[in-house]
Amino acid sequence: QVQLVESGGGLVQAGGSLRLSCATSGSTLSTYTMGWFRQAPGKQRELVASIHSGGSAFYTDSVKGRFTISRDNAKNTVYLQMNTLEPEDTAIYYCAARRAGYRWSDRVDYWGQGTQVTVSS
Known about the structure:
- By secondary structure, the chain is an all-beta fold.
- Helices cover 0% and strands 50% of the residues.
- The protein has no helices and eleven strands.
- It has strands spanning 3-7, 10-13, 18-25, 33-39, 46-51, 57-59, 67-72, 77-82, 91-98, 110-111, 115-120.
- The strands form two sheets. Strands 2, 4, 5, 6, 9, 10 and 11 form a seven-stranded mixed sheet that branches. A four-stranded antiparallel sheet has the order 1-3-8-7, with no helix packed on it.
- It is globular.
- The model has no long low-confidence stretch (mean pLDDT 96).
């Protein structure tokens, strides 16, 4: 049974930083594309960043230059470093995994339970 467990969320003031972690267990996901999604109240879940098994990364425009996604396959962990946080970043952040060769809109194999990030102004 594959599990994704997020941690690192919390309350931070605008301009601050947080680092989210997503620990995977049950199977190695080193060949999977990993992603971080977020969902704010009343809004649809959106892809924030993703990273392929080889390390190439994608970021949504609103977080470029502020967020960095990385992965440590030896530790089965994916990270999201979030700097210069803004109140608009407030959301539940979810870790996700999918097999390579698909789009996130077509396939998500595993979801984490989510971690709350709240940015105060």
